[in-house]
Amino acid sequence: MTRPNALPRDQVRFGILLAAVAACLVALLLVTRPTPLTLGGQLRPIAKALDARQRRHQAQVLRGLCRHHDCECVEAAARAGLDIDAGREVLGLLAAAKTCTFRGLAGIRAEALVRAGSGEDGRSQAG
Asked: What is the pLDDT of residue 127?
C-alpha cells in the first residue's frame, strides 16, 4: 500500500509553521535594526560648506554615507567638517550624536574645539 504524498492537513500545518518562522525573523530584524540618530540640521551646513568650497566629490560621498543617520555618518561628516575648518558645525554635530563612539572621537572633538576658537579647551581635551 502506498501512502499519499501529503495529506491536506499536513500541508496546512507546514504552511502555518513557515508563516510563524517568517514572522519571527521579520520581528527579529526589526528589533535589532539600529535606530537613526536625530541629527537635526547639523549635517546640512557641513554639506553646503563642502559644496561652496568646490569639494563636490566629498559632499557626494558624505550624502551617500548619510542616507541613514548613524554613527558612521557622524564620523564622516565630522572629518569632512574639519577638512574645511567648520569647527563650530562639527561641535554641533558631535553634541547631537552623543551616543556615538568611534576611534578618534576625542581627537576630532579636540581639533573642532581649537578650530572653533576654544584653544585651551581643545588642548586640554587632546591630553
From this structure: 62
Over 60: is that where the pLDDT of 88 sits?
yes
pLDDT-above-90 percentage for the chain: 10
Q: Which of 70, 68, 73, 50 is nearest to 60 (CA)?
A: 50
pTM: 0.65
